[in-house]
Structure formats: structure tokens, C-alpha cells
Amino acid sequence: MNLHDVDVFNAIMITRGAGAAATLLDTSQPAISRSLAKLEAELGFKLFDRIRGRLVATREGELFHAEVKANLVGLDRLKLRAAQIKEVGTGTIRVASLSALGHGLVPRAIVAFSRKHPQVRISYQVRTSNVVRDLVASGSFDIGLAADEVDTSGVLHSVFNTPRAVCVMPKNHRLAEKAVITPTDLADEAFLALSPEDTVRVAMDKVFAAHGVRPRILIETPYGLTIAILAARGMGIGLVNPSVIADRMIAGIIATPFEPAVHFRALILRPPDGINAALITDFTAELYAARNVLSAEE
């Protein structure tokens, strides 16, 4: 069995798509498809069903992936260590983040860190929280930021921040003059919602139910950045992590506190035996510094 083909299979499983796996492995999608077909032929069973152009793991694929993950952890760490030995004297750190913190907070930390360590290379990816967790757990990445609903087995973790959700809306919205937005303000409003499985969405649904309010959900998305962009285009109002709108990245919107308070909760993740400790310590310090500055700006 070719280890490259197994790597391809693992990449498809953690990214949930052949195109995303090709990006992760820096190869082409046809090459991904060839490797997958070869592996399935060698195994003698299907790893994925092709449903409406998407790859959906079969039961056999899920069982095989459980074994692959257990066996690839050591190999991934060997690859990472070899790469770092090759780059000794310059250093490399690998950072992954969920979208909510990945476009405002983390870039601030990267800029500050790079000014102090211009010789250090940074590999940075914005991914879903589950993918961030898998990248860190495998040892492929040194540090990750993820939502608190991820599986934390196999990683070191602690709470990174708990920012209060804010309502984003167009500047000309009828609620734009209010100092605080309440559940009753949102009755029958076109609402831009986070995905149903998001912990903040779950908390929001409970708040609305307690107040007897049912917002008119127009769009559901896992990304607060998407909500802010759609709000700027006049599509409605939604609740987001304030880090999403840091540095005035999105014009044409205002952010207003929501009452009662609902908080996001992000974790900082590390592999259980992380290396390059000095650089990671320095970068982690910049993450916390960026967090503190953004908290003061809210």
C-alpha cells in the first residue's frame, strides 16, 4: 500500500473534499482522484460514495480512517521534524485558525511576530474548527484556534477568548440608532444566522425561545464573516464574533451589543508533544496580545 495514497485519503477525510485536499497537499484534483481510485482498488472496497458531485465517506471508509489516523500521527510528526531540521537556523511555525479569528486577530499576531522574528517562516491556514483540530492533533501544525465544540482528545487545549456577540447590520437599518439590540427587536426581522450546530447559534435559539421570538431566518452559514458581508449588502441583521469585523475590514455596517449577552468561546490548541517551543511561546504571546487589544477596542 502506497503511503502517498493513504495521505491523499486522509487529506480528503479531514478537508471533506477532493479540491480542498488538493490544495492542502499542493497537488491537482485529477492526481487526488487517481490516488483515491488506486487505493480503493488495492483495498477492495469503496472509501467514498459519489453523491451529487460530492465525496461522502462510506462506513468502510470511516472505519479505515480511524486506523489511518492512529498510524499517521507518528509519520506526520517525523515529516514535520525532518522539515524543521532541514530549516534549522531559520525556523518555521505552522498555525491554523477558525474563520472568526482568522481574518482579524491572527493576522495582527502574525505581523507583530514577524517584525520580531523576520527570519521565521509562517505557514498559516484558515480552516473549519474540526479541520484545525485534526491538523494540530496529527502534529502537522504547531498551534490552532478552534471553536469550543471540537473534540479535544489528543490535543493540549485551553480557553483562548470568550468575546460577546454583537449585532451587525447596514448603517441605514431601522435598528441602527439603538444602543442595544434585544430579542424582541428582531421579531420578524430578516436574520442572518450561524449554522444550527454552532454553540452560539444554539444559545441564541434558546434566548429567542425564552422571549417568544422567532426571527425570520433568511440565510444560515458557518462563517460570521459571511454574515457581516451580507449585512453590509443589506441582506439583514445577524450576530457575529466581534473579531470578524476588526480593523474595519467591512464597510457599510455598524455593530451593536446584544442583550442578554451571548458569548463565543474559542480554544487554543497544541499537539501533546509540540516542538520549536521557543518560537511557539513567542507566537502564542502575540496571539494573546492581539486578543487583549481587540478586547479593549470592543
TrEMBL record:
Signal peptide stretch: none
Residues of the HTH lysR-type domain: 1-58
Matching PROSITE patterns: HTH_LYSR
Domain of life per record: Bacteria
Listed CDD domains: PBP2_LysR_opines_like
Keyword DNA-binding: yes
InterPro entries: LysR_HTH_N (IPR000847), LysR_subst-bd (IPR005119), NocR_PBP2 (IPR037424), WH-like_DNA-bd_sf (IPR036388), WH_DNA-bd_sf (IPR036390)
PANTHER family referenced in this protein's UniProt entry, alphabetically: TRANSCRIPTIONAL ACTIVATOR PROTEIN LYSR
Protein name (Swiss-Prot/TrEMBL): Transcriptional regulator, LysR family
Native species: Mesorhizobium tianshanense
